[in-house]
Amino acid sequence: MWAIATGLVVATAGLTVMLGWFLDVGSLTRVGRDALTLKFNTALCLAFLGVGVAAGAQTRAALAACVTAGAVGTLTLVQYPTGWSLGIDEAVFRDAAGAADPGRMAVGTAVCLCLGAFALISLRLGRRSTATGAAVVILAIGWLGSLGYLFGVTTLYDVGQPSTMSAHAAAVLSILGVGLLASVPNGVLAWLLRGDDPGATVLRRILPLALVGVPLVAKLTLLGEHAGWYQTEVGLAFMVIFASSGVSVVAVHMARAINRSHAERVLINEQLRVLNSSLEARIAERTADLVTSEAWARVLAWSAPVGIYHTDAHGQCTYVNDRWCEIYDMTVDAAYGNGWTDRLHPDDREWVVAAWTRSIDATFEFDAEFRVVRPSGEVSWVHSHSARVDEAASGGGYVGTVSDITARRQAEHALRETEELFRIAFGSSPIGIALVDANGLIVRANRALCELTNRELDELHTMRLQALLHPDNVGLQERGASASDVDQRIVRPDGAVCWASIRSAQIGERGAGHTGLTIVQFVDTTDRRQSEDRLVHMANHDSLTGLINRRSLGDALERHVAHCNRYGPTGAVLILDLDNFKLINDSRGHSVGDQVIVTTAHLLRERLREPDLLARFGGDEFAVLLTDGDADAARAVAQSLVEEIRHCASTIAGGQIPLSVSIGLAVFDDVERSPDEMLVNADIAMYQAKELGRDRWAEFATERYDEPRAKARLTWINRIEADIDNDSFVLHAQPIVDLATGETVQQELLVRMIGDRGDLVPPDSFLYIAERYGLSNRMDAWVLSQAFELLEATAADLAPVTLAVNVSGNGVGDTQLRAVIETFVRSGRFDPARLVLHVSEASAISNVAAVRAFAACFRELGCRLALSDVGGGFGSLYYVEHLPFDYIRLNGELITDCLEDSTNRAIIGNLVDLARSLGKETIAQNVESDRARQFLSERGVDHGQGYHLGLPVPLEVAIPTSPPRPDRPEPTNELTNARS
Questions:
Q1: Which of 242, 471, 748, 771 is most open to solvent, judged by the fewest CB atoms within 10 Å of its CB?
Q2: Which of 786, 783, 795 is nearest to 828 (CA)?
Q3: How many CB atoms lie within 10 A of CB 879?
Q4: What are the Cα distances from residue 794, in Å, to 782, 951, 961?
């Protein structure tokens, strides 16, 4: 602010003088008569410097003004020794009265102007000390000139010759010096005017010196004048300088003292104001806190979920909240004093009051659980707790809480009852149960587990769970804390092994003080596992001979084909068929035939090597997979087997039965063939051996395809494939009748082939080949597609037909066929209950898992299923009980001889009783007479099927609403009467 003010004063003075020159006003260009005139060039330079000081020389215009003033001053100094003249006055006032004046500024003024420009430029460059020195010089010259005019001392303002500094110039230069000093940040002027320097020291040193020095200088000046050392004016100048300097120092010090005092007073006042504001704010805040705390205390007391009460030092209630009143069912007025004791249960009143009194007398906390009786008679449990209150802080007494714990007490009682029930159930459970800690130690076990593991309770409580299990089992602890259900082997002390289904689930959480127990249940599954193992064995082995069956051999053949494709061909496939075996069955009986089959199987097994596989395909047919060896070795094996069977003279049923065999041989060669192709090739070779006279072996060769009989067998396969592709099969339908009402409940679809002469070929001629060579799946798909079309076409009939469709053993395990059936059933275009899928018992025996999955899938979709030919094997009762079928179709051979054979009648009765107990219906096949129908109806059979009840007829005849097939021939009487 000082710099701006002084700059504006200097600039204004310069501009005023310039204006005086322009207007020819002498009073503006000079002060008094003898104070000299301020030249125009001097006024111009002062105006420039004033602008520079006001702007701080921070702008380019201010800097240019300073440079201009400095240049003018410098040229003025140069013009004195050189005799030059700037000529500014003459140029401006050429015709004016002052034009004769040379226009030269005084030397002192020019020096000050140069120093002023130099100071501003140094300040712009950041050189504060240089700018300060120049400003001090300017201030000194201007101050001395001003003092000279003030006291009439010519020496002080006549600095150098020629030209004398004017009064204007002296005053304005003094102000310019002050402005330059104020422009320096934290410079000398700021230091002098601040009140934080040691001013007292300055006062003590300078003021006495000034008081003593002025008379002393005056005396010396007078002595010098009398002695003639110098003129009177010089002595006067010294006195003026010294006196004015002393007065200036004193004035500055006083200004600083006043400034400091004022600053201290302002600071103290500001501190007092801030302190008062802070005190007022804190008082207001504390007051608001107290008000808020009281409000919160009231809100919390009235809205607390527990009862709150306050008593005086004698235990008399002085305050209760709403929740307290709800718990005791009392009013506030009734609660004051000892009114709460009226609600105590009679059995608890005496000891509660005594405990309360003891706590008051001994001044300790009261904590108790007791019962209260409400006016309605309801009994509740409460928990009361109180603590002594500081008398100085809150007037003394006790503050306590009351909470209703009736629900908790009831839960604890229920928990105790549950624990007792759990203890009883745990101990008396028929399945083994153990509690296991996080380290796998058994902490508790029941009697059933002792019986299962054949160990005592004390022994179990010292064991780890893992010690009970077979070493090859996966540890239960490795399965984590989640529930698991696995079958594991249990090892008993005597080394015996039993199977158990083990289910574990964690109870309690680990951490937070809990050990994390796991409850483990053991269900003895030894019998079930043995039954399943037997079923698996039955599914993969022949029940009569114990040899592997067609399915197992097919799996092994697939593996061997893959081995040959990778490492090179080796080994061979042999198909063996006993010659004239039907004659043995017919002449000696089936029991003798079974003995012949068993003897032959034993003989073949003894002759073959250990790696070779022997399988029974059914009936009198066997198959052998030679796993290694070349063609010559395979031929030698085939020849030895023929000779071994030929020379067999076993005594069976008291007599010798000559045997011979026909063998077909297919050797693995460089041509890659599938397992089915190898079986077909060996089968073709076997029929070649039959045709060549039996009791021999034949080898499959590609060039023999041209032989008539082998070609004929291949032709059947081609015809079946062509009829499927060309939709050339026809369907017949045979009714299934309700034996009680005589009404038709189902129509079974039967497939027929058109012969070369347009006649119908019975299914016995081609179904065997289709099943044998893997074409039955495609035939199943074709029949099912026809059934779906018929079900959709008759869906809107008043009495829609129900169709029964047979699914082959290969079709049951075909996932693609199952997906096609599922898609049609889910389409919603017909009622799924109108489709009954028939699966033979033989298919169930060969692949239990596939049949169970097939039946479960389509029964869930709403279809019905029937197990056919039940009663033909010893496993029938198991399949009836465990497979999810709706109908049981009794084997036709049982029904045919049921009137004469008491054993068959007993088997029929047992099967019917079992099916009825399981909620399943029965269907009898081969019902050929009215006597048989009547017997079956009386015995409880639900439905029947046979020629007496209905013959197979074309589909369009059996179901008139079905679309006619004009390109299909009508059946002859012989075919109509033939068995399906």
A1: 471
A2: 795
A3: 20
A4: 19, 22, 7
Tell me whether strands 572-578 and 661-667 are parallel, antiparallel or unpaired: antiparallel
Tokens of 601: 């199987």
Report the alpha-carbon angle 211-215-220, nearest 5.
Answer: 140
What 3-state DSSP class applies to 838? strand
Phi/psi at 344 (nearest 5 deg)? -70, 145
Asked if 24 contacts 203 with a C-beta cutoff of 8 angstroms, the reply is no
What does the alpha-carbon distance between residue 678 and residue 573 come to, in Å, rounded to a whole number?
A: 7
Residues 6+ apart with CB under 8 A from 136: 177, 181, 188
- Spatial CB neighbours of 85, under 8 Å, sequence gap ≥ 6: 79, 102, 103, 104
- Separation CA 52–CA 43 (nearest Å): 14
pLDDT at residue 483 in the model? 44
The radius of gyration of the chain's CA atoms, rounded to the nearest angstrom, is 65
CA 55/CA 808 separation, integer angstroms: 112
Tokens standing for 947? 């020629």
d(CA 144, CA 167): 11
DSSP output for 465-529: GGGGB-TTSPPGGGG-SS-EEEEEEEEPTTS-EEEEEEEEEEES-SBTTB--EEEEEEEE-HHHH
HEC string of 96-134 equals CHHHHCCCCCCHHHHHHHHHHHHHHHHHHCCCHHHHHHH
The 10s digit of each residue's pLDDT in 257-309 is: 666 666 677 778 787 888 878 877 777 777 666 666 666 666 666 567 788 88
Candidates 652, 555, 657, 547; CA nearest to 604 is 547
Of the candidates 944, 901, 952, 940, the one whose C-alpha atom is nearest the C-alpha of residue 926 is: 944
> Do residues 304 and 298 lie in contact, with contact meaning Cβ atoms separated by under 8 Å?
no
Classify strands 307-311 and 317-320 as parallel, antiparallel or unpaired: antiparallel
Cβ atoms of residues 542 and 560 within 8 Å: no
- Most confident residue range from 702-716, 830-844, 936-950: 936-950
pTM score, whole prediction: 0.40
Q: Residue length, the chain?
A: 980
Task: State both tokens at 519.
Answer: 């409850």
708 token code pair: 């008539």
CA distance 717 to 413: 79
Which amino acid belongs to residue 156? L
Which residue in 948, 949, 950, 955 sits closest to 971, CA to CA? 955
